[in-house]
């Protein structure tokens, strides 16, 4: 993998605990990783976990660290080669589909020029939530808008259901990021 500046957006799903391993693997491969977290995400895993792994501040509060000339979300959005939102909640899908920007993750997305910087979503939720018409509608519309939306996997869920809605494992997400970066680099050559 070519070294890149990768954003990992985390919204409030139980699969958030799996993202620490992905972030560590990306850092170990020489990438600079900025982690963005919604308030709900910080209830599942602490920002300290990610600031320790990345050796960088976590963007978990859009009202903090504001540089007078350049709000933090704009600076981060412009610096990224790619943003992966994993887990991407049912709520985050709805927000992104409606262009809402009231948390650190959706706010950074709002400032990304997606012709230059791909945004990849990894929806993860209970199987009934995944099948809701609203979820399916939001996924279809986000794809139409040019977001890459990964398929969720079938299997055991933390809510003790078995079905569609599991987030792909860390190694799959790592390969998705690697592939997206190499496609982006070949297109810009
Ligand atoms: C224990 C628990 C687990 C949850 N897991 C998920 C999940 O896996 N996926 C999901 O879409 N929502 C899940 N939720 C609901 C979200 O946390 C909730 O919709 C929250 O408002 C999402 O906020 P965010 O999208 O700003 O991060 C869970 C809630 C709780 C209390």
Query: What is the CATH architecture annotation?
Result: 3-Layer(aba) Sandwich
Overall strand count: 7
Order of SSEs: EHEHHEHHEHHEEEH
CATH homology-level superfamily = Flavin prenyltransferase-like
Rounded to the nearest angstrom, the radius of gyration is 15 Å
Describe this structure in words.
This protein is α/β, with parallel strands linked by helices and 189 residues long. 41% of the residues lie in helices and 19% in strands. It is built from eight helices and seven strands. Helix 1 links the parallel strand 1 and strand 2. The mean pLDDT is 94. Flavin mononucleotide (FMN) binds next to helix 4.
List the helices and strands and how they pair.
Blueprint (H helix, E strand, L loop, with lengths): L4 E6 L8 H10 L3 E6 L9 H8 L17 H8 L2 E7 L1 H8 L6 H7 L8 E5 L3 H5 L1 H12 L3 E2 L3 E4 L5 E5 L3 H19 L1
Helix pairs in contact: 1-2, 1-8, 3-5, 4-7
Bound molecules: flavin mononucleotide.
The site of flavin mononucleotide has 17 residues, from helix 4.
């Amino acid at each position: 993998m070519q070294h890149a500046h990768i954003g990992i957006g985390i919204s409030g799903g139980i699969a958030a605990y799996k993202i620490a391993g992905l972030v560590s693997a990306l850092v170990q491969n020489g990438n600079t990783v900025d982690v963005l977290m919604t308030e709900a995400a910080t209830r599942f895993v602490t920002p300290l976990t990610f600031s320790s792994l990345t050796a960088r501040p976590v963007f978990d509060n859009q009202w903090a660290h504001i540089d007078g000339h350049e709000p933090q979300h704009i600076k981060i959005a412009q610096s990224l080669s790619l943003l992966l939102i994993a887990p991407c909640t049912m709520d985050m899908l709805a927000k992104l589909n409606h262009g809402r920007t009231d948390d650190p993750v959706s706010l950074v997305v709002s400032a990304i020029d997606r012709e230059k910087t791909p945004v990849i979503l990894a929806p993860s939720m209970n199987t009934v939530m995944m099948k809701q018409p609203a979820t399916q509608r939001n996924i279809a519309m986000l794809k139409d808008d040019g977001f890459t939306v990964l398929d969720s996997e079938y299997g055991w869920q933390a809510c003790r259901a078995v079905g569609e809605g599991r987030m792909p494992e860390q190694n799959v997400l790592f390969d998705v990021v690697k592939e997206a970066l190499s496609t982006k680099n070949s297109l810009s050559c």
